[in-house]
């Protein structure tokens, strides 16, 4: 027996026990080697006419034996001589494939796609095997050799038989333990599953004997009551799909093919809303195929949801969901990125440098944005549907990370217009603002129907200004983060975005303002009693400059609106750093209730003034769609009034 070198022994132990996080990749590694071996033979045949092969016959065969507990991966590729077996499999981290690539880098290798590079993948077989036997015959020789090892001490090499050139890797599976079933993949479905997942796009056929059920031929004398009979037969089948659809030009793939691929690989029952195919060449070569689903993937708004794109390198799956490839706000996008240029780490499970990934991610983000924008403009109905599912994430994106991405996202947002009763963009809002409108208005509350009835909303609408009705928790933060919007026209001035519940709406004329101030000082005493009755709840009680049909409305000054304060109060720790909510009760001097108040005050009935103040405050809260702290007290006050 030839011993592995001492340092090799240590390395081997490390390899087998620590490099890979996932045992099942052993098959991916062996299939990748087989594919490389076949690729190399094909490449040689291009320049060496003595090699008589047809590309169509090149293949990888899988077999299993449940009794002997073996899994075999065979190829009819380049094979190895005795010396090569010793060198390639006896030396860890020696990659002949890497050398092959380097040697042939200058030549036209467009048609070969070598996967190997580190010289360690083979040893992953020892994660599941207690012994591995490799029977190989080089294309340059008539003699085959068998290499065998337990993956611990060393290996033996002896003469063997093999009819043609190529290699068989036979894994003798470890014994099952309480925790591990090493024979899990020692059957048709286990193997097929691994191939589908990791090696589906390996460019040579991967064949496996499969059990198929077929209808028995109908007997000649079968009567009219004959029911067809079925039998199971064995048939060698190609179980990988080989051609990675993302490498094909968009013009060569039908929509149906894309849809089928999307549905089967990303487990969706509905066709994607959009398919994006990207092919980049140059400093970083990659292909990407992205899908925008027609509906939200399950659990998209939960913490457990994992975003990301499948990452392939040279047709072999590296990562199922590579998170770095997608920003959070486009987390609904599914798809595949494939690049040969990635510097993988040794386990081929992660990448060494994120720079390449970042560059790809940036391109992808731009592309998604462009696609969404085109949908918004050309197929509004579909876009609205999509936005209903994914808009919330984009709104979060606007305010996440201190708003760094808001410019990218702002024109993708849709809001519900009270005026048009449909979803519009901020651009559309700004474009139809009448002369004199200085701000973009929105209202925030639990339901649109409710908001549409709010007095202040109607007061703004009466001015001829539109109001965006927002009913998602994130809206308020999104609007705050945006702060203002100018529209697409060049040189446009940013218009501030204002909640209709804020104090300085800028709706009133100077005269109206002056008149309201005059009324406020005129009724200072009355308003003072009311403010006192409300105590901490309000900062002041004033006469409103805006005419609504309600007797009173609540407004707030500064960033913190009542709605937001309510929302934060419900979030644990939410109020801790939150700015103070400065509330004003604004009275409608034209409303009969104001007359009643004045009369009560004139008659010295302070108790009535106080009761009214409290009822008006509570009522205004209810109108805003907010809940009362003490509904029983409110009911009692109304009862007092009714008596
Ligand atoms: P890598 O594939 O990264 O080079 P591996 O440990 O997987 O590293 O394989 C080491 C070397 O063994 C390969 O470079 C290749 O030369 C050789 N080898 C492995 N499997 C085969 C095979 N099926 N046919 C021919 N050569 C092989
Ligand atoms: Mg390899």
Number of domains: 4
Strand order of the largest sheet: 1-6-5-4-7-3-2-8-9
**Shape designation:** elongated
* Major β-sheet profile: 9 strands, mixed
CATH architecture of the largest domain: 2-Layer Sandwich
Which structural class do you get from the secondary structure elements?
A: alpha+beta
Predict the CATH topology of the largest domain: Heat Shock Protein 90
Task: Report low-confidence residues grouped into runs of 5 or more.
Answer: none
Q: Could you give me the name of the CATH homologous superfamily of the largest domain?
A: Histidine kinase-like ATPase, C-terminal domain
The number of helices is 19
Mean pLDDT: 88
Rg result: 36 Å
Percent range of helical residues: 25-40%
Per CATH, the class of the largest domain reads: Alpha Beta
Number of strands: 23
Quote the distance from N terminus to C terminus: 106 Å
Instruction: Name every ligand kind in the structure.
Output: adenosine-5'-diphosphate, magnesium ion
Textual characterization of the structure:
The protein is α+β, with helices and mostly antiparallel strands and 643 residues long. The chain has 4 domains: 2-212, Heat Shock Protein 90; 245-384, Ribosomal Protein S5, domain 2; 414-500, Rossmann fold; 503-643, Heat shock protein 90, C-terminal domain (Four Helix Bundle (Hemerythrin (Met), subunit A), Up-down Bundle). A 9-stranded mixed β-sheet has the order 1-6-5-4-7-3-2-8-9, covered by helices on one side. It is elongated and about 120 Å long. The N and C termini lie far apart (106 Å). The model has no long low-confidence stretch (mean pLDDT 88). Bound molecules: adenosine-5'-diphosphate (ADP) and magnesium ion.
